[in-house]
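Design request, tokens follow.
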């Protein structure tokens, strides 16, 4: 929680020595609160005050990183309960399980299935970010062997899942350079699991059946020297879990209750692919920093990933494509030219419908700060000047020998002014993008 100037002033020496460049300690405290000064500017501040200020100024939710290299993922460091208050910072990491009971071809196929959970949506690559190796066998040797196989054949961040400190120690010894997330420590195993995590430099999951036990457990883990903690609640059902997650979030962020100021992980293993996807989507919406499922069905994963993409998109900065001219197919000097905005969903909808027409075309993407056609027009971000400027900037006149421009039907009202601004004939396209194939095949031709 941010400190006020008076809160900071109470921790300063109050000598008004002016060594910091400010006339008084109070003025310096106010500058610190507004981030216009640094605490190091005061040469007389005590170490105790520095420690208190650092602790108070720390984010209410700790950032936790696991995985190594390109597989590294970050969770936590959230600052708000609801996205509209500011934004969410760390998208939920989705992953699938690999059981250590698998071997040979079964293990290979399972790893390949997890690796294949990668997609592209509206120009953005999305996919699984983690793989959870589960100690279903109870054997330390099997767990270590499977973890090694996953490390060698999968490039995703790794999570090791076992109740047994012995099995966990055996597996971590083989893959510690991959910086796996260790799941989990309970009140019974906290000392042993925390030692394994600390010795190997890995973050640790705290797992408990109640919020009270979870807070106690995280404090014990921290006391053992492990700072990077992830929380896991064993709630009896989805309804209870969603309620508990919301309560943890409120306590951690609004009350700044440090024992609960960590990201959360959820394991969804019951039911078929559809049931797991439904539960996982609910948990994505209610504060799970990591969600692990058993299914590797691609349709189910795509639904979950789309949810992550939607929930964690900055509401003040829509997903955008680069403004420029995009050739669809192999257009020539006689091909149609049309324009749309740089809102990703709008562009890729237009692109797919133009491709469906099988008529090579040019799509001019106008920079409207990531807003849709109607929104951009209503906000005066899409008008005859912005379109004419984009045509000139990207050399549309050099691409075709005709002088005809197709505009979205929803902004037909701007056709007259656009003709005056460009000296091009403006053709009003359909209002609905799905009618573009028919329009290009019948009206253009």
């Amino acid at each position: 929680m941010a400190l006020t100037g008076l809160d900071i002033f109470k921790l300063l020496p109050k000598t008004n020595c002016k060594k910091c460049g400010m006339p008084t300690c109070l003025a310096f405290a106010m500058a610190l609160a507004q981030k216009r000064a640094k605490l190091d500017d005061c040469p007389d501040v005590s170490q105790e005050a520095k420690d208190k200020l650092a602790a108070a100024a720390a984010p209410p939710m700790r950032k936790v990183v696991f995985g190594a290299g390109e597989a590294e993922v970050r969770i936590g460091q959230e600052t708000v309960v609801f996205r509209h208050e500011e934004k969410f910072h760390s998208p939920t990491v989705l992953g699938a399980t690999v059981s250590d009971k698998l071997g040979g071809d079964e293990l290979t196929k399972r790893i390949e299935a997890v690796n294949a959970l990668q997609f592209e949506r509206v120009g953005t690559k999305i996919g699984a970010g983690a793989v959870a190796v589960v100690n279903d066998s109870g054997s330390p040797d099997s767990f270590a062997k499977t973890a090694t196989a996953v490390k060698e054949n999968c490039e995703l961040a790794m999570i090791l899942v076992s109740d047994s400190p012995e099995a966990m120690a055996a597996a971590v010894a083989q893959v510690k350079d991959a910086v796996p997330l260790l799941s989990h420590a309970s009140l019974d195993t906290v000392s042993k699991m925390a030692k394994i995590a600390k010795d190997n430099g890995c973050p640790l999951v705290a797992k408990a059946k109640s919020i009270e036990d979870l807070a106690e457990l995280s404090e014990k883990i921290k006391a053992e020297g492990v700072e990077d903690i992830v929380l896991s609640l064993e709630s009896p059902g989805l309804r209870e879990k969603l309620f508990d997650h919301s309560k943890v979030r409120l306590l951690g962020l609004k009350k700044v209750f440090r024992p609960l100021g960590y990201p959360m992980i959820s394991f969804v293993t019951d039911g078929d692919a559809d049931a797991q996807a439904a539960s996982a989507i609910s948990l994505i919406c209610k504060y799970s920093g990591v969600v692990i499922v058993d299914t590797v069905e691609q349709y189910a994963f795509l639904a979950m990933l789309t949810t992550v993409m939607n929930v964690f998109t900055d509401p003040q900065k829509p997903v955008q494509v680069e403004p420029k001219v995009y050739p669809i197919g192999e257009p020539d000097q006689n091909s149609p030219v049309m324009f749309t905005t740089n809102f990703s969903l709008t562009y890729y909808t237009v692109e797919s419908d133009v491709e469906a027409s099988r008529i090579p075309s040019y799509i001019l993407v106008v920079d409207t700060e990531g807003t849709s056609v109607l929104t951009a027009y209503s906000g005066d971000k899409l008008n005859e000047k912005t379109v004419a400027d984009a045509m000139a900037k990207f050399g549309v006149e050099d691409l075709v020998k005709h002088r005809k421009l197709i505009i979205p039907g929803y902004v037909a009202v701007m056709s007259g002014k656009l003709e005056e601004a460009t000296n091009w004939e403006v053709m009003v396209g359909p209002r609905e993008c799905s009618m573009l194939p028919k329009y290009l095949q019948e009206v253009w031709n």
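Comment from the thread starter after seeing the answer: thanks! The mean pLDDT is 93.
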